[in-house]
Specification:
Length: 211
């Protein structure tokens, strides 16, 4: 019996993927590296440094570790500057209704995100008030497709992996959920085409039918 839902953040509860895309475009244009929506799909759910490695691999030069760390900080500063202006209005009504409906059913709710900026987003949008737990990039050593962040979230909720759905928009997240013993739910993005997803939804509110 399922008792909990663990949500990815970017692209599921909020559309910060649009901010990520705009910031990546700015950075890659400055560096003379091609960037596209297809590359964006590849880096969904990855850690900051892993996503940077993918983006830089499209270029024709080698970067030192110090240069990579500097670029990662530059990209993050630009992202935080934009994300810091988010409000509750940036969250779709369907998300608020779904969270309230699940809470009314006694379902435990958490976010499991590889992003180290998850606390900022949850605070700015007010989503944190609807959650029972948060596991983010500040608390883990291994990013998705490793299941560590979801296992951490389940531990904070006090549930076993088999008692929780994981909602993801990235293929890496679906694989992480499955490897961790969770039931993966695909919600758009590259996750929609994943054969590993146990369920597929077009609207977050469809989750309520699973309880």
């Amino acid at each position: 019996m399922k008792r909990a839902v663990i949500f990815d953040l970017d692209g599921v509860l909020v559309h910060t993927d649009k901010i990520h895309y705009a910031v990546w475009v700015e950075l890659t244009e400055k560096l003379g590296i091609p960037f596209s929506p297809q590359v964006m799909d590849r880096v969904r759910g990855m850690s900051r440094m892993d996503s940077l490695e993918v983006v830089l691999s499209a270029g024709d030069r080698t970067w030192t570790q110090a240069e990579k760390e500097s670029l990662a900080k530059e990209k993050n500063r630009a992202y935080v500057a934009r994300a810091g202006k988010m409000t509750s209005a940036d969250v779709e009504e369907d998300v608020w209704r779904t969270l309230d409906a699940l809470r009314a059913r006694g379902v435990l709710l958490a976010v499991g995100s590889s992003s180290k900026n998850a606390p900022l987003i949850l605070e700015r949008t007010g989503l944190g008030e609807k959650l029972d737990a948060l596991a983010d990039g500040n608390m883990i050593q291994r990013a998705k497709p490793d299941p560590e962040v979801f296992l951490r979230a389940a531990g904070l909720l006090g549930v076993a992996p088999g008692e929780a759905y994981v909602v993801e928009d990235a293929e890496a997240g679906i694989r992480a959920a499955l490897d961790g013993g969770f039931t993966p739910v695909a919600f758009g993005g590259s996750a929609a085409a994943s054969p590993l997803a146990a369920h597929r939804i077009d609207r977050l509110s469809q989750l309520t039918a699973l309880f």
